[in-house]
Amino acid sequence: MARRVKAFNVWKEMSRALLWRLAGAVFLMFSILGPLSVLMESKTRVVPWTFILIQCLSSGGLAASIILLGRKRWWVIFFLTIFWTGIMVMNSGGLSFVFGDGGFRVQLGTSMGVLDHVARTTPLTIAPQELSAIYEQRAILGVLAIAFLASGYIMFILVIRTEVKQRSRLETEVRIAREIQESLLPEPMLETPWCSIAGRALPATEVGGDFFDIIPLSEDRIAVAIADVTGHGVGAGILGAMTKSALRAQLIHGADPKDVLTTLNAALFQLSDQKTFVTFGYALIDRSARSVRYATAGHPPLLFRNARGSVEPLRTVNLALGLKQDAAFSTASLAFAAGDALILYTDGILEAANARGEEFGADRLNLYVAAGPNDPAELCNGAITALSGFVGTETFQDDVSIVAVRFLT
Length: 409
Known about the structure:
Elements: H1 7-13, H2 16-30, H3 33-39, H4 49-69, H5 74-91, E1 95-100, E2 103-108, H6 114-121, H7 128-184, E3 189-191, E4 195-202, E5 210-216, E6 221-229, H8 234-253, H9 257-271, E7 278-286, E8 291-297, E9 302-305, E10 311-314, E11 332-335, E12 341-345, H10 347-351, H11 361-371, H12 376-391, E13 400-407
Antiparallel strand pairs: 1-2, 3-4, 4-13, 5-6, 6-7, 7-8, 8-11, 9-10, 9-12, 12-13
Helix pairs in contact: 2-4, 2-7, 3-4, 3-7, 4-5, 7-8, 8-9
């Protein structure tokens, strides 16, 4: 489901080129304050065109500057308003504070003097030529105001239409990317006579960087993997899909944890840049040997819960995948028995924070796992519920994934 975007956020997320066009439209629409300030004036006179030009530039410049720079900080809008308002006031002759018979008044321009008082008490006489010039100027100003407003409105509509088209295309691409990513996820549950496995993945945005996979290799062997690509969004989702494809390809040739991590690291080093990497957790479960061979690469520890409820973190000290071309990887193993459980998860669970800034953390997760339900699906769902209750919302700042394995025999 696409997120609903507020109008304020649309302005903040516009491309630079489109933002300049929006600023131009706003400039034209607000520049009509220049002609309007003359048309609304009570004095009958011909106003200098330089005055009108500066008023147009300052009023339109104020609005355009806010569009271009106002999304930075609130104080930017404050100083822009002071700057452009100062230009308009100075262009009008400054501010005057008048104390007189009519009381206290604030007006643009110089204060009223004797000549103005005389002008108010004597009949106003205007030469025909001057009156004709006034009518002509005001007619031109009226046409200019209409032209500015109409052209600005047309440009504004074109900008909004372009933005809507771009967002519609982007939302379609994101929806397709999410559908592809969801199609790559395994069935949420795997039931065998000797173990039960379930998992859940919640992306922070439309397309997430987390993924998990449950791959039956034979009747006695199952590979379980979980990964977290740096960041989230479409780019992380694409790299996650590529990592999963490389994992599936490697398992055809060998499922040993060391071989899997070595092959994936070599592939990701070629595909990603130095700022992008993948943390990875992997477990190869072998019923005949009753063992779990595992490895973690820059990933949070796996959790092993025995039948008595004791929780042990499992981790191998390895670099995350894609950071170093010739990185060496270590592995480890442990035995399992009926009633034991294995939990894989991403750091989105550990780093989820509440309103006070407190993270959920490893201790809370370990306590939950120790006392959690035996059924893998219930354990995963319960972990998400507990995390939502701690954070206070059903959406998280980072992708969240968890997989639980329950050994039945």
